[in-house]
Amino acid sequence: MIMQRTPTNEILIAMDLGTQKMTVAVAEMSAEGALTLLGVGESASAGMRKAEVTDFGYAQSAARMAMAEAERRTQAEITEVYLSLSGTHLASRNESVRGATALEDDHRVTETTLEDLNKLAANLPLSRDHVILHELLRGYSLDRGVASTQPLGVHTEQIEAHYHLVTGKRTRLQTAVQCVADQKIRVKGCTFSAYASGLAVLGEEGKKRGTVVIDLGAGVSDVAVWRDEAVVHSVVHGVGGDHLSQDLSIGLEIPYARAEKLKKEMGSVILEEGEKDERITLPRDISFDGRSFYKEAMTQILQARMAETLQIIRDDLEEQNLWGAVETEVVLTGGGARLRGLGRLASEIFPRPVRIGRARDFLGEQSDLERPEFSTVLGTLKYAAETERKEANQTVGWRKIQKSLGRMVSSLKFLA
Ligand SMILES: Nc1ncnc2c1ncn2[C@@H]1O[C@H](COP(=O)(O)OP(=O)(O)OP(=O)(O)O)[C@@H](O)[C@H]1O
Ligand SMILES: [Mg+2]
């Protein structure tokens, strides 16, 4: 919820329903907008596949456990949350809508001009069953193609607004929201994971000069390309760390849970010098006979699948002709970014420098900020802060109430 701790600071809560874990992050926002992370509650996911809810009851209990853990760790009472969503049903595209200024306004761009453009974008035709999750503004073009990000008050006859539109299947989005919402908890806003992870790990320079953010999760890999402070491309690929563990399980003939543990503790995609003849022995237990294999065999399996995953991502960016817009780097985050040697492997695949990204610009709990698997939930906190601040900056009185109602309806209209 937005609970008043001190007269000026408010509490923001974000939640991420991941394939492997559910996380709830709690932060305090100062009057100036600075975020202090108070803590993250975590629970192992259940009822989730490829970032989507497949078993409502299990997913709901896991979500409640993460919330209870966050409440216990931070002493905050959760009544309102911002939620990040993902899944391969999400689709995105860039759209532009055109409008004109009015003669009686002396052809100046007014708030109404911009609101009308936003309404046009919100009413663009969508594929069947889809609803808009986000209309992310990329900028405006004025008469004679002049670009602008802040056109209010400028004289122009024509104006065009450019959006990155993210849509998803209504039923899938509703299911995820209803997994969290109940009599006590209200979902106040939703964002999508690829955008949230970028908000967490990028600074102004990266957002402006072009960066690819890749969040490697257990079931999906969320990708967003940033340029000129906006998202210009986003996609959810249905490949993730689960595939690596599955391959290890089959290739080394070990149970899946063992493979997952092995990957996290000893996995690597690069064989270091002197490791060629190294063997790994997994001890036997009640349900497992034990197993011994060359480290090289494990590395080859992980490398093959990880290279394939990164190539799928690279091929999509090539198809979209996006590398020209990416002047800086590729940032890898999400739990999968912990895999040893990943940075080196990715540098061979992508035509830009690669780094592992962790959340930035937060005060507070540094150990939680270090964890790349928290990028999505921490970015969702930034989205929450941005949304709350926009609302607070609106003019007071009836107009403010009208506007905030409008935005609520707009950001959660798939619930209608
Ligand atoms: N040290 C590690 N080495 C290799 N892989 C790791 C490591 N730690 C976590 N992972 C992998 O990261 C993945 C989990 O990442 P994350 O927690 O970001 O996923 P998620 O958000 O739950 O899933 P998704 O985003 O797909 O819904 C799993 O596949 C896990 O095995
Ligand atoms: Mg994730």
Explain what you see.
The chain is α/β, with parallel strands linked by helices and 416 residues long. Among the domains are: 91-168, Dna Ligase, domain 1, CATH 3.30.1490.110; 241-299, 2-Layer Sandwich (Nucleotidyltransferase, domain 5), CATH 3.30.420. It has helices at 56-74, 111-122, 170-180, 193-201, 204-209, 241-251, 256-266, 295-319, 342-349, 366-369, 375-393, 398-411, and strands at residues 10-17, 21-29, 35-44, 48-49, 52-53, 80-85, 91-100, 130-142, 147-148, 158-169, 186-192, 211-216, 221-227, 230-237, 279-282, 291-294, 330-333, 354-356, 362-364. The protein has a six-stranded mixed sheet, sandwiched between helices. It has a five-stranded mixed sheet with strand order 14-13-12-17-18, sandwiched between helices. Helix 4 crosses helix 11 (375-393), helix 6 (241-251) packs across helix 7 and helix 6 packs antiparallel against helix 8 (295-319). It is globular and about 80 Å long. The relative contact order is 0.15. The structure holds adenosine-5'-triphosphate and magnesium ion. Residues 18-21, 51, 86, 217-220, 240-242, 245, 260, 263-264, 267, 334-336, 338-339, 373 line the site of adenosine-5'-triphosphate. Magnesium ion (MG) binds next to loops.
What is the strand tally?
19
Report the major sheet.
6 strands, mixed
At CATH level 3, the topology of the domain at 91-168 is Dna Ligase, domain 1
Overall radius of gyration: 23 Å
Percentage of residues in strands: 25-35%
| Assembly annotation | single chain
Percent helix: 25-40%
Structural class comes to: alpha/beta
Task: Name the poorly predicted regions.
Answer: 395-410
